[in-house]
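Researcher: Please translate sequence to structure tokens.
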Amino acid sequence: MQKEILVSGASGLVGSAFFSSLDPQTHRVLQLVRHPVHADSSHVSWSPTEGEIEREKLEGLTAVVHLAGEPIAAKRWSPEQKARIRDSRVNGTRLLAESLAAAKNKPEVLVCASAIGWYGDRGTETLTEASEAGDGFLTEVTQAWEKAADPAREAGIRVVHLRLGVVLSPDGGALAKMMLPFKLCLGGPLGDGQGFMSWVALPDVVAIFNEAVTNPDMKGAYNVTAPHPVNSREFAKALGKALGRPAVIPLPAPVIRFGLGEMGETLLLHSAKILPERLTKEVGYEFQYPELSSALEALL
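Model: Translation complete:
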């Protein structure tokens, strides 16, 4: 019997990779979409801004994987853009959680993407899931984002929040944007080079999402970051080596702040040294790419 999985954000970097990982012989995948090109049984239409969703298609699902949200690095953070980032995550998650909670035949699990922004800017402090939340815009968004799943949790659905670090893939995200300046020999550390980057390779992200769907013991928040975070200087050195290019031209903090404003400050200069303690100790997950150098060599 096929398992039915509903996926939101299936066209994004993580969503498309997760979608491709599912065996069509054993899984029937439905996509949660705002504007379906053609309406059919594999599409579930929704509009978080209007509070609308095709509720009848939510009956009898095995699992829901929720990845949708306004990209945080798409443009500078104006007040309007910050509202879009927050509302797309919080309102969408709340609508989905409430709708699943109201279903007669509820799914076994709701796996929600979250983010390590929950921890804020913490310097060299070692952080695990037991650490307190930080401060700042992304922290506020992430806390509200995770809380928005409460209706599903209260209805007895197993809820998993996967706090994603910097997902590395040459097909998109941060790594794809970094590659061009490095290939042009213009790459280097960000700011003073001491800020920690908690990264994770895309294949590990996909494997962890699959584990969250199938492992009945997983619930609550998990850090999805490789077990060996590095600072910006170490990251630049490893990327330069993988591409066969020098990595000595720093991007000064004032330039980042001037060019990208609050978004640049938060995404490029803030530091968070995060360990995936629950994944490694409770779940027993073994990372395919625990070290940055081997991850970049494999990905590139």
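Researcher: Any highlights?
Model: Residues 120 and 136 are 6 Å apart (CA to CA).
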